[in-house]
Amino acid sequence: MRQFCTYIYWFFGLFLCSIGTTLGQQTALPDESVFKEPKTRLWLNTYGNIRISKRLFWDAQTHFRFQETENTPFVGQVAQLYNRHAIGYIYSKQINFRLGGVARVNFNTDESSTDRNVVPEWRIWHQYQFAQPLYSAMIYHRIRIEHRWTQGFADNSEYTFRNRWRYMFRAKIPLNSTKLAPKTIYVSPEAELIMQSGKAVVGSVMEDLRLTSTLGYIATPRLTFAAGLMYSHGQELSNPGIYKQNWTLRFHMYFSPDFRKVRNKLPAIHLKD
Amino acid sequence: MDSISKAHISTIKSNVRVATAVSDTYLDNTLLNILKLSDPEAQQLHTVLERISKEQVVPLQKLVVYSEDEILEFLTKEDILKNLWPNGINESIVAQNEANAPSSGFRSIETVQLDFENNTVASIAILAEYTAEHLTFIENLLKAKLSKQEREQERMALDEQLLAQNNRLSQLIDSVGNTLGLAYQKALASIQTVTVANLSNLSSEEDLELARKLVVCHESMYQLALTVAALPAQSAEIRKLYQDRIWNPFMATLMDEAVKKRISSAYQKLLIPYFLDQINTKLNCNNVDDMRLLLDALHNRMLELRNEDTKKLERKLKKETDVLTVIDVLRLKVVENNPEK
């Protein structure tokens, strides 16, 4: 617990420090915040949650992210292929943790660029999720911390290390049922703040603020589909006074197969009974 | 006592036994006592029976007692006659026979020759034989009368029972009808239709055998109605049984997931509708028990299958839409469709 508090102090210290540093960079900053024209993006995301044992599961996510280009508006071209994996631990019905890695492939969407078209990006990530029933709905608090190595498209560009500090609040509210159950349509409002830190981050601590509304359908306990629209904006790394904006159409498929034998499955649903 | 007398006594004994049996059976017969109130002929036969019993059977029984007590050989002819018939013998016996015979319609094959004074034992033997024959004749008449009466009474009782069964079925349908789905209500209505049709086929004539069968049949119909009325609850039980509580990690919630879907689907979508249809279209007294037993067997089989390894069975059920094949796969006995079974 003490260590956790230290972590939090460090988090806010860094946050304030970044703001101070940002204030110290007056010369590079515009007189007023500049919000760039929003871009449109399309994300197709799959989320797999494969039960390994009574308390462990494999989190397997693959995302296809498209970004508009001048030649292909709206849907655009592939910007990132995203593979996020982790081993998760179910502490209780309400609390779970996970730890894993991300292998992301970034595509150069700047059509005028003569740099490399594809570069990899690596991350180690850990996540702490707290779920809570609230009337017929469920609400979720998610803290996700990522340690991220990125590189630019320019040849021989060095890896840049940054940390990402993410908090997300999400609710899932059933619309045609009294609870989240199969054949239920639900609406899910969601807000996520992504902060970042690292040597390269001089003033742009707010990497992204994402506000999403999603409509989902629980087909079976093991299969859910959802689609939503996300507005996001955040500071550009190169200049904290400039904010990029995005409108993202997101489609999700959630699947959670369980290949264990029946006799192993049965007690797993009652973790502490 | 000479051997001839002994032979006479033996004859008397056997005839007295016959006469006593008739007399005991019919003198206090409840049904005859009721019948004689409405039937003059029965009344007359009962009167004759009473008089013969009193004036002939009782004295003859006394003689048998004397014989068994071995005091007969110490009694003179006069003593015997005086003890058996204190009021005299010749006139009364003859008079009785003359009076009785026409009233019962009995005619002895042989002319009764009685000479109590000279051939006392022989005459008493003849009298005993005559009495036994006469009572047997009366018994046959009464049997026929009582049999008819018994049948009529049984039929009345059966009619009452059938009516009560019909009322009970109506009450059941009224009490559960509205709480059930339409398909079940229709099946219950079909059961009632069949029972009402059965009753209307039952003529007012003396069709006792059919009435007896219908009582048994309608009891089965009621049991079937109870089974049908219980089907929605059973169906809900099966639906719940064929579900697992599944952890949905994305929602952090437990959810119900259908398991062994092919079996539960065959039950819900094929078998139950099929059996309800059978009840609606094929139900009769011959197959009512089969239908009920099959529904019970189906429920029990569904309870068993939940915990059995059913992979092979589920493979066989894949895309199977023929009900009879499904029944076969589930190893249920097929209902007899032929009403003329």
Helix proportion of chain A: under 10%
| Unreliably modeled segments of chain A | 15-27
Q: Tell me the number of strands of chain B.
A: 2
Strand content of chain A: over 45%
Report the average pLDDT across residues of chain B. 85
Strand order of the largest sheet of chain A: 2-3-4-5-6-7-8-9-10-11-12
Distance between the termini of chain B: 69 Å
Give, in spatial order, the strands making up the sheet with the most strands of chain B. Answer: 1-2
Tell me the span between the first and last alpha carbons of chain A.
Answer: 27 Å
Biggest beta sheet summary of chain A: 11 strands, mixed, barrel
Spell out the helices and strands of chain B N to C. HHHHHHHHEEHHHH
Task: Assign the structural class of chain A, choosing from mainly alpha, mainly beta, alpha/beta, alpha+beta, or little secondary structure.
Answer: mainly beta
Using a beta-carbon cutoff below 8 angstroms, give the protein chain pair with the largest interface and the number of residues from each chain: A-B, 31 and 14 residues
Radius of gyration of chain B using CA atoms only: 36 Å
Task: Please describe the structure with a list of short key phrases separated by commas or semicolons.
heterodimer, A: 273 residues, mainly beta, eleven-stranded mixed barrel, B: 341 residues, mainly alpha, 2 strands, elongated, disordered C terminus
Characterization of the model:
The complex is a heterodimer of chains A (273) and B (341). Chain A has 273 residues and is mainly beta. Chain A has two helices and twelve strands. Chain A has helices at 2-24, 262-265; strands spanning 34-35, 39-51, 56-67, 77-90, 95-107, 118-134, 137-150, 160-174, 184-197, 206-220, 223-235, 242-255. Chain A is globular and about 55 Å long. Residues 15-27 of chain A have low confidence and may be disordered. Chain B has helices at residues 3-27, 30-38, 40-68, 77-84, 90-104, 120-176, 182-201, 208-241, 261-282, 288-305, 311-317, 323-329; strands spanning 243-248, 253-258. With 341 residues, chain B is mainly α. Residues 334-341 of chain B have low confidence and may be disordered. The longest helix of chain B has 57 residues, at 120-176. Helix content of chain B is 74%, strand content 4%. Chain B is elongated and about 120 Å long. The interface between A and B is medium-sized, with 31 and 14 residues.
